[in-house]
Amino acid sequence: MKEIDKYQVRTDVFFDPETHFWIDKTGNKAVVGMSPLVQETSGSFVAVLFNEMGAALGKGESFGTIEAEKHVGPLKMPVSGKTIVCNQKVIENPRLLNTDPFGEGWLMEIELSAFDKEENGLVSGEENITSWFQAELKKFDEKGWIAQQ
After folding, report:
1. How far apart are CA 94 and CA 67, in angstroms?
2. What is the spatial distance between Cα 88 and Cα 105, in angstroms, rounded to a whole number?
3. What pLDDT digit, counting tens, does each position of 18-38 carry?
4. What are the tens digits of pLDDT across the range 54-78?
5. Per the CB 3.0–4.6 Å rule, which of 24, 66, 114, 135 could disulfide with 31?
6. DSSP label of 47
7. What is the pLDDT of residue 149?
8. Measured between alpha carbons, how far is 111 from 108 in angstroms, rounded to an integer?
9. Mean model confidence pLDDT for the chain
10. Could you tell me which of 109, 89, 95, 107 has the C-alpha nearest to residue 39?
């Protein structure tokens, strides 16, 4: 974990710059979760619904929906794969996405299907993640998406 501004960010995972989801890859499987910036701009999460597990989905396809104080919308695949397991704890307590995005607040596990082709579009490595995250913070702040304290 690395502190970037006021956020604790994992730098040992991949990030999809489009969805802001992180991907923790082990072999041909991966656990997927949300960047702290998603929860910062969405507010408190109140509901998470997953589509049926076992579906083979391409990058960008919906695997469920999410409802928060400031946002309702689809959850989009950060990489292609087959959905295996959804996090029941997040269904029962969506606030885990806000309070523990890199721990108990993960979303699902997938079996990767095209990671070797999609990896180049992801952000990885401590330096790259730090630079990307800082740039996203600046962009989000300029758009007024981050609450000032």
Report:
1. 9
2. 10
3. 999 999 999 999 999 999 888
4. 999 999 999 999 999 888 999 999 9
5. 24
6. E
7. 46
8. 10
9. 94
10. 95
pTM: 0.93
Contact 36, 64 (CB under 8 A): no
Q: Count how many domains the chain has.
A: 1
The boundaries of the domain holding residue 41 are 2-118
Q: In b/e form, how buried is each residue of 7-18, taking b as 16+ CB within 10 angstroms?
A: bebbbebbbbee
What confidence score (pLDDT) does residue 124 get? 98
Does 136 fall in a domain? no
pLDDT at 115 over 50: yes
Residue 96 falls within a domain, yes or no? yes
Q: Which residues contact 139 (CB under 8 A, 6 or more apart)?
A: none
The answer to whether position 30 is within a domain reads: yes
> Tokens representing 126?
């401590």
C-alpha dihedral, 55 to 59 to 63 to 66, nearest 10°: 170
**Domain assignment present for 59:** yes
